[in-house]
Amino acid sequence: MALLLDLANIVGGFLLAVAVLRLLPRVGDDLGRLAARAAPIAWVVGLVALVTGGYYLIVHLVSGPRVFHFEVVGIGVGLALLWDRLTGRPAARAERSDAATGVRLLLAIFGLIAIVVGVQGLFTPDG
User: Fold this and answer.
1) DSSP assignment of 75-116, as one string?
2) Residue 72: exposed, middle, or buried by beta-carbon count in 10 A (0-12, 13-18, 19+)?
3) Are 9 and 74 in contact (CB under 8 A)?
4) What pTM was computed for the model?
5) 127 in helix, strand or coil?
6) Closest to 16 measured CA to CA, from 31, 1, 2, 4
7) Whole-angstrom Cα distance, residue 4 to residue 65?
8) CA angle, residues 7, 10, 12, in degrees to nearest 5
9) Which SS3 state, helix, strand or coil, does residue 42 take?
10) Do residues 108 and 79 make contact, with C-beta atoms less than 8 angstroms apart?
11) In the 8-state DSSP scheme, what is residue 41?
12) Within a 10 A sphere around the Cβ of 127, how many other Cβ atoms?
């Protein structure tokens, strides 16, 4: 279950950070195409991140030692990826602009943070 949360943080962070990752030289276009192929399943990644993050938040609030940043970031990634389905309004990441400004830039930076937190979660012992 912890692996699902970590992978959802990494993949969801990638989907959120693609606005900034496209600006990388040599690999930006390839990352943009990869994100375009993965965009139809973004809601699944968001749902997994939201459910696993919520599960661990409840577990750590009730019986765990403390609330960890992994689940808080997972809930944030889930909400960001499911925003258009939850509210009925298009998400800021859905805009087809090359410029990463405003809310798109904020989501992209949060996506980069989610990638780092997901990788950190892979190397953090669960026990």
Assistant:
1) HHHHHHHTHHHHHSS--GGG---S---THHHHHHHHHHHHHH
2) middle
3) yes
4) 0.87
5) coil
6) 31
7) 21
8) 100
9) helix
10) no
11) G
12) 2
Cα dihedral: 90, 96, 42, 78 (round 10):
-50
pLDDT in tens, the chain (127 residues): 889 999 999 999 999 998 888 888 888 888 888 888 988 899 999 999 999 999 999 999 999 788 899 999 999 999 999 988 888 887 665 555 566 778 888 999 999 999 999 999 999 887 5
Residue type at position 84: D
The position carrying tokens 């019986």 is 63
Closest Cα to residue 75, out of 96, 65, 61?
61
